[in-house]
Specification:
Layout: H1 9-16, H2 20-27, H3 32-39, H4 46-74, H5 80-129, H6 134-143, H7 147-161, H8 166-176, H9 180-195, H10 199-253, H11 259-284
Helix pairs in contact: 1-4, 2-4, 3-5, 4-5, 5-6, 5-7, 5-10, 6-7, 7-8, 8-9, 9-10, 10-11
């Protein structure tokens, strides 16, 4: 979830309301934000979301500044930019995270659909090969544990049961989803219904396309990870050991006492970089199962 936990829920409305107009103008610079929030069924509109993102980032920056200020004061070190820079970095990072959060959650929903799509198509194909109608096959998919795909087919089945033509219900489903493969499958199903072609051949071809795409995704991910694993090894092993040695040598040669502070800063930077690399590799991992 976005880092709104820094803002107590009862205060979110009163705090965001006076700045909603400004927030709406800023939100207009991000055309996809409104659609992402609607897809996620968020309690906040684009204007409120932008304002709360700024407020939560500001609170985080103030907290980081206060902690850094106290640490520097207790050690008798100069405050200045040493406290301002971490606070500014915290503000920008949290603001970026909050602005990216809806798109990331939307991507996860698409991944959840495409993860189950292969199994749903296989069940459709098996049911129709056994002589079931398309409607009955969709009922079976809706009643199975296929996650978001099953939910979407459940909505479509209820619409058809309520009297909506099958092609119109499938078209509405295609417009609802953000998965390109599910869209493609649904539009092809609509075309087959109108032309009278073989639904089984279409599903078989579509299933092979999805499987090939997933295999290519895994292959590209494996190739790309070689570089990121190398960077992780450098960040986790080479930089801390060589950097610590260099800091100790420089402190001895210059008769300075900055080695402890510099070593702590180096380790903190390496720790943050390692976490960022791990999170990046996790985000890039194709979700297949």
């Amino acid at each position: 979830m976005p880092m709104f936990s820094l803002v107590p829920r009862p205060l979110r409305g009163p705090l965001s309301r006076p700045f909603r107009g400004i927030g709406s103008r800023i939100a207009a610079l991000f055309p996809g934000l409104k659609g992402d929030l609607e897809l996620l069924k968020s309690d906040y509109g684009p204007g409120d979301y932008v304002v709360l993102s700024f407020i939560s980032a500001l609170i985080a920056a103030v907290l980081v500044f206060a902690v850094t200020f106290l640490l520097l004061q207790t050690r008798g070190m100069h405050v200045g930019g040493n406290a301002i820079l971490p606070a500014a970095a915290a503000f920008l990072l949290l603001l970026y995270y909050n602005f990216r959060w809806p798109a990331l959650q939307k991507g996860k929903k698409v991944e959840a659909v495409e993860r189950e799509l292969t199994y749903a198509m296989r069940e459709l194909l098996t049911a129709m090969s056994a002589g079931s109608s398309l409607f009955k096959a969709m009922e079976m998919v809706a009643g199975s544990e296929h996650g978001k795909v099953g939910e979407e087919f459940g909505i479509t089945v209820r619409q058809i049961s309520g009297g909506v033509p099958a092609d119109k219900a499938l078209e509405a489903m295609a417009l609802r989803t953000d998965s390109q493969f599910l869209k493609k499958m649904l539009w092809q199903m609509i075309g087959v219904l109108k032309s009278g072609a073989s639904m089984q051949e279409m599903l078989q071809s579509m299933q092979e396309s999805v499987l090939n795409y997933q295999q290519n995704q895994i292959r590209r991910y494996t190739q790309e990870m070689n570089l990121w694993i190398l960077l992780y090894i450098i960040t986790a092993i080479a930089i801390p050991s060589l950097g610590a040695t260099l800091i100790v040598v420089l402190s001895v040669l210059s008769n300075s006492s900055f080695n402890e502070y510099a070593l702590g800063a180096l380790l903190l930077i390496c720790f943050v970089a390692e976490g960022a690399l791990i999170e990046y590799m996790n985000v890039k991992r194709p979700v297949m199962y």
